[in-house]
From TrEMBL:
SMART domains: ZnF_C2H2. Gene3D superfamilies: Classic Zinc Finger. SUPFAM superfamilies: beta-beta-alpha zinc fingers (SSF57667). Belongs to the pacC/RIM101 family. InterPro entries: pacC/RIM101, Znf_C2H2_sf, Znf_C2H2_type. GO terms for cellular component: nucleus. Its main location: nucleus. It is found in: Nucleus. GO terms for molecular function: zinc ion binding. It comes from Neocallimastix californiae. This is C2H2-type domain-containing protein. Keywords: Metal-binding, Nucleus, Repeat, Repressor, Zinc, Zinc-finger. PROSITE patterns: ZINC_FINGER_C2H2_1, ZINC_FINGER_C2H2_2.
C-alpha cells in the first residue's frame, strides 16, 4: 500500500453510485447497473439488430427484440 488509509467508496462505506443526469438520482451499488441506466439518458445506440437494423442502447434490449424475429 502507498498510504495508510484506503480512499474511495469502500473506505467510507458508501458503496452506492448515483446517476446525477438532470437530477435523476438513480442509485445502485453495482457500477454496471448505473452505467446501463445512464445509457437511457443519451442517444448512443451501439447494439444493432442484424435482421432489421434497429438500434438499441442496451444489450438486454436487443436480446428482447431478437425474440420477435
Amino acid at each position: 500500500h502507498l498510504c495508510d488509509d484506503h480512499v474511495g467508496r469502500k473506505a467510507n462505506n458508501n458503496l452506492c453510485l448515483t446517476c446525477y443526469w438532470n437530477n435523476c438520482n438513480y442509485t445502485k451499488k453495482k457500477r454496471d447497473h448505473v452505467t446501463s441506466h445512464i445509457r437511457k439518458h443519451i442517444e448512443f445506440k451501439p447494439h444493432i439488430c442484424q435482421t432489421c437494423y434497429r438500434a438499441f442502447k442496451r444489450p438486454q434490449d436487443l436480446k428482447k427484440h431478437l425474440a420477435i424475429h
